[in-house]
């Protein structure tokens, strides 16, 4: 299986790996077929928008992933992509965006990117439910 250099870089040197001690929200998802598990902790902040209202944004995110090299790489690159984004922007990151950011994934590993996206959406949903 051929991985891009970016996938290998994130696998060997994952960004934002670990836990947030008092997260605003968390979520964990698993794929029952391959057994991989991804967990995201979110720290949500508030900031003013141009129109004077406030928006929630991702101040910090950490991941813990038990799984394949691709699952670790997609988790790592996704945290880089969404830090600083509003919840609305982060919700719109697609699995295709993640795959593109990694310069591609082998077809058999596309579901790893779908799993990371599902996990982030679930964490955002948990945050919104708690408000
Ligand atoms: Fe299933 Fe990577 S092989 S998430």
UniProtKB/TrEMBL annotation:
Pfam families reported in the protein's UniProt record: NifU_N (PF01592)
Gene3D superfamilies named among the record's database cross-references: 3.90.1010.10
Natural source organism: candidate division WWE3 bacterium CG08_land_8_20_14_0_20_43_13
MF terms (GO), sorted A to Z: iron ion binding; iron-sulfur cluster binding
Ranges of residues in domain NIF system FeS cluster assembly NifU N-terminal: 3-130
This protein's name: Iron-sulfur cluster assembly scaffold protein
Alphabetical GO biological process terms: iron-sulfur cluster assembly
Alphabetized InterPro entries for the sequence: NIF_FeS_clus_asmbl_NifU_N
Domain of life according to the entry: Bacteria
Alphabetized SUPFAM superfamilies for the sequence: SufE/NifU
